[in-house]
Design brief:
Helix 2 links the parallel strand 2 and strand 3. The chain starts with a strand and ends with a strand. A 5-stranded parallel β-sheet has the order 3-2-4-1-5, sandwiched between helices. It has a single domain, classed as 3-Layer(aba) Sandwich (Cobalt-precorrin-4 Transmethylase, domain 1), CATH 3.40.1010. Helices cover 39% and strands 16% of the residues. The chain has 5 helices and 5 strands. Helix 4 packs across helix 5. The chain is α/β, with parallel strands linked by helices and 142 residues long.
Length: 142
């Protein structure tokens, strides 16, 4: 089995070709979509067209909606910090999410995908370190 490497990426402000080039230059072989709703107004980033584009570049697509932040719908009511606090609580009370993401990443150069360009403003900043700890690897934001 190949050595596991874990990355995160947000597609905010990126075009699909730029996004795919970043994944290719980092030798990503599996993308784990951790959006609760894998839809986007940004061309190419909704689940089906994204999975197709990734497959054309030899990258597996795995959708894990359960790893998404169920509180994202309240982004106009809560600060980003409050949303992350709520996501931490969600992870703490929901069995198996971190393990499921780790299982999908194990043995791959995997990247966790969400929207926000800045990982510190995104739930992947909470999820990725927990997954990395399970995998005994570090995580890098692309």
């Amino acid at each position: 089995m190949a050595k596991t490497a874990l990355f995160t990426i947000g597609y905010e402000g990126r075009q699909l070709d730029e996004f795919l080039a970043i994944l290719g230059s980092n030798k990503i072989d599996r993308l784990i979509d951790v959006r609760e709703l894998p839809l986007s107004r940004r061309r190419g980033f909704s689940k089906t067209p994204l999975a197709k584009a990734l497959a054309e570049h030899g990258i597996d697509y795995v959708g894990l909606r359960e790893a998404g932040n169920p509180h994202h719908k309240r982004k106009h009511e809560l600060s980003k910090a409050q949303l992350l606090v709520k996501y931490r609580a969600h992870l703490a009370k929901t069995d198996g999410i971190v393990e499921r993401v780790a299982d999908e990443a194990r043995g791959h150069r995997a990247v966790l995908l969400c929207y926000e360009a800045d990982a510190h403003e995104c739930h992947r900043s909470v999820l990725a370190p927990k997954v990395a700890a399970k995998l005994r690897c570090k995580t890098t934001d692309l």
